[in-house]
Amino acid sequence: MSHTFLCSFNSAKAQNCDYQGGQNDDWIFDKRCAPVTVQRTVTFRGVNDGGTGNVSIYFDWGDGSTPDIVPATEISSNNWQADASHIYPIGGDNCNYEAQAYLMVNGVLCTSSVQTQIATVWDIDNQNGGIIDISPEIYPICVGNDGSVQFADISQWNCTPPDEEDTPNFRNRWTQWVYGTDTTNISTATVDGINYPWPYYGPINYYAGDTVLSPAPPASLSETIYIPPGYNVGDRFIVTIRNWNACNPYDDPSIPGPPSDPVNGDHPPVVTTAMAIIVDLPDNTISAAGPFCETDLPTQLIAATPGGTWSGPGIDPETGIFNPTEAGAGNHNIEYNVTNSNGCSVTGSINLEVKESPVVNIAPGTEVFLCPGLDLQLFAEISGGTPPYTINWSGDTLPLNNTNTVNPTFYTTNIGTYHLTALVTDDTGCSNQTDITIEVEDVFINFDPNPIALCAGETMVLSPIISGGSRNFITHIWSGPNVDKLSATDIANPVFFSTDTGTFQFNYQVVDSMGCSDQTNLTVIVKEKPFAYAGVDTLTCSLQYQLHGNVNNADSSHWSVISGPGNIFFDDQNLGTATISADQPGTYLLVWELRKGNCLDTDTVEITFSEAPTPTIIGPFQLCGLIAELETFPGINAGTWSLTSGPGEASFSNINNPQTQVEVSTPGIYTFSRLEVSPDGCIGETTQTIEFLPQAIADMGSVDAENCSPIEITFENHSINADTYQWNFGDGSASSEELPTHIYAVSGTEPDTLTIELQALNLHGCNDTISKQIIIKPVPVASFDADPLAGCSPLEVSFTNNSAGADIFYWNFGDSSSIETGFSPSHTFVNAENYVQSYQVNLTAENSYGCTNSHSVYITVYPGLCIRIIKRWT
User: Fold this and answer.
1) Which residue among 498, 509, 513, 720 has the highest number of C-beta atoms inside a 10 angstrom radius?
2) Which of 429-443, 609-623, 820-834 has the lowest mean pLDDT?
3) How far apart are CA 630 and CA 828, in angstroms?
């Protein structure tokens, strides 16, 4: 390969790196396995050294060794070459090395002149990127248990994919499993069910060359190793994998015969080991805890080995927090299961005692309401736990007569809220407590508002606001001159009702369960109420309607819309007879409101806007004939068609459909009506005017479909409603006669197919056309010669057929003989009479289309013996 390079430097000798002739690079290995010796010859052509002769080649071998700078030899004019060799040693760290060579001129390294070669160096399988490895490296067996394991050779062999794709080391390989090596001390283990003396050497597995690039079953798998129970932590069983490849072959092809050392082969193997080892169980110890009281707060249990799972009453499985209250009184077995990193599991347990705590209930309850100056007897009822008990009252204890008794008396004249706590402790030290709140407040009645205003005829539930005391109000007394307006006088919330206007006074008294009471006065003012009437529910067939609300004696009035599919617009929203407009049809609910002072009355009315149908029809039009299509748009409502006016009768294909067909009995101007009714009963109507014009109908009568040429045809004409006619005979001829005659002739030998067309025209332009096809077939030409034309009987005559365009021939010789069909026959004529006879010979020629033509010739035949006079000319 030839390249052109241009290197640029700041040095004054930059031009010395210019060379134009290209490169050459020879690269020779002595072998593939390390140590590998490579011989390299590099040539640069067209080098401009400025005549100094100071040209070298810089060799970088890519393996970290010191580069070689070799003086070059000028092998021809401006062409320089240098040789170098290098050894890639055993134990390198790469499979491939990138070796580079550069031109140096006058001590300047020409970096753009680089020539690169890749050195692929194989080695034993734990070198140059190779790894000898076993999985698992360590197989743990929990102490006290047995186990079985099968190890796998997961080595990455030297210079094989993915490390090397181009020149992989796919030559011969040998591997061997050895069992019970090194410090193995589990002597009763078995390999594939057999207890061998250790170490036990398995077979040497051979991987044939050019076949395998990585360990593969079954050779890559060890035999199954069984470790029996009963061994101590740290006891082990070791396996070794031994490996040979082309660089340390077990059976070296360069050494005659099999290996002299059948155990280790011709070269030492590469080895690595793995083991099955007895490992300890995790520590399942749980730190001591308890005893607990039922009322104690949750406690964190501590395990020696974290990360396990808890189980048992009151224990959180994940966190190990023990809740005595959730567990309840008693002895509880708590278990802890933990698994270590080797997969060994163990379960520990602890017994936790939860002592029953006392329970205290306070009578008359935990929330008490009281009037000032009354005694309240408290009583603490204690159960559970272990007697004897002690009790202590705390909090707002000033009103108590004793804080260390189960039944103290509470007394105070001061209004307020008092909080007390009763703490009970049993003989084991377990305790429990209950809180009580005592509200001390006078009974108090309030009405809001007072006075109460309402309108005549309205009901009102009287609702006193009562607070204080025991909150249990058992007696209610309403009094005053107007108690007849109340539904009851001995309940808290009687109903007031009056159609009379005026002011009504009441006294209300209440007594609670402790005898505490209060009373107050209530005033009810009843005002006059107007009467509203919105009118009757109405259906209107438009989007506008005038309302019919009353006015009465109200101070103000107002219309409003409650519901509807669209918007309602008022000309005056405060006027009872307001006119409203809807922007969408449908049912609207409106409310009419009358107000007099603060008294209000309302009434509702439903107005249904249902637009009358507006069927639309296209404008008046004319048509030819007596049938027309009628259609209304949108035609969504039920309706009927009818004839409004016209000179004849009309029939409809469907009188109800929006789209129908109508047929009239005679031409003229007709008006039709469409009446439609909406689902709400609204009616709409429209009319359609149509002028039916006389329609000409062309009819040429019957014409023979096929004719032989020439043919003269006199055409019939049965057309109606026509004023003029136009005939087109199909052969370029035409006529405007009513009953024309035309001669058809064929000029060729093939039939002519012609279309005859008759146009019937009238003054209204309602024209009609009819057409028929006829076929004009060619006629043959019959012709023949006879020889002789005259002679004595019997006379034999030869006929020569000269006909054209014929396929079939019929010969009639005129002498009552049979018809012959030959092409050019001969015939003998016999005259038995004593006078001369002439016979008319007729030839009928017929073609394939069935057309015929005839030609006749007379033959004269003399009777009996005749004398022929021969005139000789001398």
Assistant:
1) 498
2) 609-623
3) 84
